[in-house]
Automatic annotation (TrEMBL):
Residues 111-296 form the HD-GYP domain. PANTHER family: CYCLIC DI-GMP PHOSPHODIESTERASE PA4108, CYCLIC DI-GMP PHOSPHODIESTERASE PA4108-RELATED. Gene3D superfamilies: Hypothetical protein af1432. InterPro entries: HD/PDEase_dom, HD_GYP_dom. It holds the Pfam family HD_5. It comes from Tissierella carlieri. It comes from the Bacteria. PROSITE patterns: HD_GYP. This is HD-GYP domain-containing protein.
Length: 296
């Protein structure tokens, strides 16, 4: 915008509020934008190569704390970071409620808000069904993106596991709550009902987002590399790498969570359980990446 303009009382061009936090687009010009983000603890910030080709991006941490997975270091309030022409994706975990001021290339704000809102709409559906499932999905998504970042996988894979991990159990909204939270062992009939949730999740994503790749990964997230998974008994390379990562992250979070039918495993016991089936149900490389991420 040409000329001189004063913005008062937090006035913004656009504001969006969702489960991840509050996002305000403050300034936008032909080649850059400045926006404020207040992000809740337990979420993630990712910086990808395609976002910063020949363009400097700067992020000022006004308050809170981030953990930079790639360098295993913290970034706290009063510090800032920049990125330009990245060679790999960088992942930051939001350790505390954190306020950021971001100066980035034009269009990033709208692209990210649009993607996040689609995910948050589905997370709302999960929350209305069951708070544990919502928490589990969020934790799985955050852990999955750390694994994918550790393995230095592509931008697309990292983006997929972050968003898909957070909604991978969306199909459970059709499962009766008395089955989801049953304190005892499930009957064969009840387990068969549970096993329908990947297909239902696929269908919900197609109905709401219409993304075939996302829907396919959700459909596969309980497949095991030896063919003993469900719903189709896929093996090895028939399963997408995103689904393999989500399976490991999903299993670890489920084992270390408190449930009505059992107490949580310790981290070490859960790691041992994963290693017992490494190369059978789970990809060895992904299990070992999880071990490194968790032990950090």
């Amino acid at each position: 915008m040409d000329g001189f303009k004063i913005y008062k009382n937090g006035e913004a061009i656009k504001e969006d509020i969702n489960k991840a936090g509050r996002f305000k687009l403050m300034i936008q010009d032909s080649d850059f934008e400045i926006f404020e983000s207040y992000i809740h603890a337990g979420h993630s910030v990712i910086c990808q190569p395609y976002e910063c080709e020949n363009s400097m991006n700067a992020v000022f941490v006004l308050s809170g704390k981030l953990y930079h997975t790639n360098t295993k270091s913290y970034i706290s309030g009063g510090e800032h970071y920049t990125f330009k022409n990245l060679k790999e994706t960088h992942h930051l975990s939001v350790e505390e409620d954190t306020e950021l001021l971001m100066i980035r290339k034009k269009s990033f704000f709208m692209e990210q808000v649009s993607k996040m809102n689609k995910v948050m709409e589905l997370m709302d559906m999960i929350q209305k069904k069951d708070h544990y499932t919502e928490k589990h999905c969020n934790s799985t998504g955050n852990l999955a993106v750390k694994i994918a970042t550790y393995l230095r996988l592509s931008d697309e894979v990292i983006q997929n596991v972050l968003f898909i991990g957070k909604i991978h159990d969306i199909g459970k909204i059709d499962v009766p709550i008395e089955i989801l939270n049953k304190p005892g062992k499930l009957t064969a009939e009840e387990f068969d009902f549970i096993k329908k949730h990947p297909q239902r999740g696929h269908d919900i994503v197609m109905e709401t987002i219409g993304d075939k790749e996302v829907a396919k990964i959700i459909l596969q997230h309980h497949e095991r590399i030896d063919g003993s998974g469900y719903p189709f008994g896929l093996k090895g390379k028939e399963i997408s790498v995103e689904a393999k990562i989500i399976l490991v992250a999903d299993s670890f979070d489920a084992m270390t969570s408190n449930r009505p039918y059992r107490k949580p495993m310790s981290v070490n016991d859960a790691i041992q359980e994963l290693r017992t089936y490494s190369g059978i149900w789970y990809e060895k490389e992904i299990v070992e990446a999880l071990v490194e991420v968790v032990r950090e």
